[in-house]
Amino acid sequence: MSEALLNAGRQTLMLELQEASRLPERLGDDFVRAANIILHCEGKVVVSGIGKSGHIGKKIAATLASTGTPAFFVHPAEALHGDLGMIESRDVMLFISYSGGAKELDLIIPRLEDKSIALLAMTGKPTSPLGLAAKAVLDISVEREACRCTLRRPPAPSIP
What we know:
single chain; alpha/beta; Rossmann fold; five-stranded parallel β-sheet; 45% helix; SIS_dom_sf; SIS_Kpsf; arabinose-5-phosphate isomerase activity; EC 5.3.1.13; carbohydrate derivative binding
């Protein structure tokens, strides 16, 4: 049994390394555009996401804040119930959604556009509604997930 667990652990790590190794080839103009938008942001970087993407977003916001970039996380449901008021036109919104089609986005995106807030996306589906609405898209798609179970898991390359 312990040999089987070790093998499963090794296979999982190898698959995640393989998927993560594909990320550099996806970096291009959108990465540069996203970096410049964040570097020239005069306000805060507001990070949002639902489920596991939300947990990853909290980590990204905390890392940005601890390295000197004003940032915080807002849950999409809270954003729709008043917390969008915290976001100003000087801010940048980074939304993380593997599918890029979270229902909350249909309501959030027009409000961001009304306030002229720059939207950045981390998604596995660059042609999703989120990807199409964003000023820059970071493609986090994976060919294969490490989890063999039927539960949704975060894409391997998005794990901080």
